[in-house]
From TrEMBL:
A Pfam short name: Chitin_bind_4
Annotated spans, Disordered: 45-74
Protein's name according to its UniProt entry: Endocuticle structural glycoprotein SgAbd-2
Source species taxonomy: Eukaryota, Metazoa, Ecdysozoa, Arthropoda, Crustacea
A GO cellular component annotation in the UniProt record: chitin-based extracellular matrix
Native organism: Daphnia sinensis
GO molecular function terms listed in the Swiss-Prot or TrEMBL record: structural constituent of chitin-based larval cuticle
Amino acid sequence: MKFIIALAFLAVALAAPQGDTKPIEIVSSNSEMNADGSYSFNFESADGTKVSESGSQKQVGPKPEDIGTVSKGSYSYTSPDGVVITVNWTADENGFQATGDHLPTPPPMPEHVVKMLADLKAAGVL
């Protein structure tokens, strides 16, 4: 049993990062928080990673107390193969929606489905 425990500790020690890894420097950083609940922040690191976000309070339901934060932002980084990846996103009463050239998109709807939906809408079903 002691041998198994010693082996587990050895495996954990070998799995730990090796070498001299230095922290990545933050080259710019800005942050703002306002009394009305709105905010914004952004930063950029020395490796080219960029992040920005802004948000505000919004009534997201029928009642005055249905207040939520709506936010939008973006981030970008360089992938291991040297391509800059950028994601733009929105988070609001419709959920989280991200866009980016690298993200998969659904195929177009077949023509018969488009026609069927148009017919249903015209009939007042949708």
